[in-house]
Amino acid sequence: MEDEIVLLDFWPSLFGARVRIALAEKGIKYDSKEEDLRSKSPLLLQMNPIYKQIPVLIHNGKPICDSLIVVQYIEDVWNDRNPLLPSAPYHRAQARFWADYVEKKIFELWSKVWTSKREEQEVAEKEFIEALKLLEDQLGDKTYFGGDNLGFVDIALVPYYGWFKAYETFGNLNIESECPKFNAWVKRCLQKESVSKSLPNQHKIYEFSVELRKKLGIESVGI
């Protein structure tokens, strides 16, 4: 019997993009259901009653929530194709550590750059670039964080690319010049169809960001 796989998603979501990339890397067919987060569907509320957030992967009627947990679930269930985590326990632990760093530190600084007032924003921009440089050091000379193949850390991090145009417009950032190795890594990731077709268009993200900032009353920050 064929698996029934449904993804509750929202197109601008970098968290949803992580799951899209993982599913594409594994070659898994699924039904995507777009959510309106202003009016959450009964299915979303039923499948994620605690946080009421996307993404939610529904596998044969059972929900899995939180993007990185979903990606690990995908790796565990479909472990016979395109591994996303190394086989050695130590290297698996390291991959989880850096994915957690992305989840906590990069997201925190990204949020500050995007929403802070001018003085706070300048500090956040500097810290954001420093965090990316730390990740550049971790990448080293490898093709991907996962080595020769796209892996768990790559999937955690690359969806932020979709928001770079908005970062650079709203803040005083030039990620390409500040972090050239990081930028080269992004370009390598985008050469993979699993990534390029899973990320939202940067211009659409920018337009979405402008409208959202207006609603939040922060349209003048960084401009």
UniProtKB/TrEMBL annotation:
InterPro entries: Glutathione-S-Trfase_C-like, Glutathione-S-Trfase_C_sf, Glutathione_S-Trfase, Glutathione_S-Trfase_N, GST_C_Tau, Omega/Tau-like, Thioredoxin-like_sf. Residues 3-82 form the GST N-terminal domain. Transmembrane segments: none annotated. It catalyses: RX + glutathione = an S-substituted glutathione + a halide anion + H(+). The keyword Transport does not apply. GO terms for cellular component: cytosol. CDD domains: GST_C_Tau, GST_N_Tau. Residues 88-208 form the GST C-terminal domain. The keyword Endoplasmic reticulum does not apply. Keywords: Cytoplasm, Transferase. It comes from the Eukaryota. SUPFAM superfamilies: GST C-terminal domain-like, Thioredoxin-like. Its EC number is 2.5.1.18. One of its GO terms (molecular function) is glutathione transferase activity. It is found in: Cytoplasm, Cytosol. Belongs to the GST superfamily. Is involved in the conjugation of reduced glutathione to a wide number of exogenous and endogenous hydrophobic electrophiles. This is Glutathione S-transferase. It comes from Flemingia macrophylla. The lineage of its organism: Eukaryota, Viridiplantae, Streptophyta, Embryophyta, Tracheophyta.
